[in-house]
Amino acid sequence: MAFKSDPDLLLPLECHKFLRFGATIPNDDTSGLRNYIDTVSRVASCYFGSRVRDWDEGEGVSGYYALDDVKRSIRSYEQLDEPEVPTTIAQFVLGTDPIRELNLPLYEMKPVLGKGQGLVARFNIAKGQLIISEKPFFTTSDATSAAMMEKQISIELRKLPKDAQRQFLSLHNNFPGKKPFSGIVRTNALPCGPDSPIGGIYPTISRINHSCLPNAHNSWNSASGYENIYAVRFIKAGEEITIPYDHGGPSDERRRHLKNAFGFDCDCSICSRQPAELKQSDERRRQIQHLDGEIGNPHRLMQRPGDSLKDCQALLQILEEEFEGSPGAHIARLYYDAFQLCIVHGDQARARVLAERSYRARLACEGENNPETKRIQKLMEDPKTHPIFGMSMKWKTPKNQVPRGLSSDEFEKWLWRQGR
Ligand SMILES: [Zn+2]
């Protein structure tokens, strides 16, 4: 969104990419510039809260982000997801926030054609915005048998207030039979962290339906005990909010898994494509699986790191294409893999840049208070604190050896060690 015509005075639509906003205010400010800066600060504070920091170059303090980072960010927000400006922005500019004042959530629960209940955006939601943060009814333990699990859930259920019990029992059960509580849990639980055997069941979040091209990302915050849902792309008012239930792979694999585990036939925007287009998507999904495997190969990581780094760069492009420019948490993970590759070989300069990109991607889809976001932020500040630092010193560089003054293309060539 442009407040003024000066190209340096632009505030991007996707506000998580907004890193730095500067202006020189003359002592005899008659143009209202001070008021204007205050408005920008207020808009930024609505989105970022305590992350907004002031600096004053006149006092020798420099901004948190270097100008190179800012320029890179500007280039990335020049490609907007959607041309529309969220309707709520106007209210921020006027200094009021109707959502907070009326305490209206960003979503509403509604019947969705062919899917039972679902969550639908009540307002336009910007990419990187927190949609809902919710505590589970309860979390499941790593039960040894189905009978034990049923018993444990019934104990947890009895502890809940009556209306919460009713909400739990109204959730979909894909495994009707003698163990109804476990059936509901198996159908609706979200793992508390990637690959965690512990699952959480939620009053609202458990109603969010699946898409193979989701517009939101779910993550467990182990510090707060809340599950959080962030928008990974611009979501238009009225659009259904979706998260991924699948483990990736081509459409036939995904659809089989979704049918077995959750009892539905996926008709998302990818699965319902024409055969030729679906085939292209399936090919990309296969490549994603293949490259993921190659990058995770520890022998290759130590012996042929250059090849692994090339794979990271290739995967980045495929993810961007397959997830239409908003690969969310996939990107955070990919940059983290590339970070590990550099730090294990002692390359602190590239590791720092890669950790920062991973941090920014994670910030946008899991928030600043997620312990994983904080951990990566620390690595970005001091990459050598990672336990695998310098197992080999093949690519040794100090952390301040990030080149300056390169064009964007040259910088990417340096980062991915092209031509070396
Ligand atoms: Zn699908």
Question: Which small-molecule ligands are present, each listed once?
Answer: zinc ion
Strand order of the largest sheet: 3-9-8
Please give the alpha-carbon distance between the first and last residues.
41 Å
- Mean pLDDT over all positions: 86
Helix content: 40-55%
Beta-strand portion reads 5-15%
Shape: globular
How many runs of DSSP E, i.e. beta strands? 10
Taken in chain order, the helices and strands follow as HHHHEEEEHHHEEEEEEHHHHHHHH
Low-confidence stretches: 1-5, 79-88, 93-97
Structural class, please? mainly alpha
The major pleated sheet works out as: 3 strands, antiparallel
Computed over alpha carbons, the radius of gyration is: 23 Å
Please, how many helices?
15
What does this structure look like?
- With 420 residues, the chain is mainly alpha-helical.
- 43% of the residues lie in helices and 10% in strands.
- It has helices at 33-48, 67-77, 88-93, 98-102, 146-159, 162-169, 180-188, 251-262, 275-295, 298-303, 305-322, 329-344, 348-366, 371-381, 408-415, and strands at residues 107-112, 116-121, 130-134, 138-139, 190-191, 199-201, 209-210, 216-221, 226-231, 242-243.
- The strands form four sheets. Strands 3-9-8 form a three-stranded antiparallel β-sheet. A three-stranded antiparallel β-sheet has the order 4-6-5, with no helix packed on it.
- β5 (190-191) and β6 (199-201) form a beta hairpin.
- It is globular, with a radius of gyration of 23 Å.
- Residues 1-5, 79-88 and 93-97 have low confidence and may be disordered.
- It binds zinc ion.
- Residues 212, 266, 268, 270-271 line the site of zinc ion.
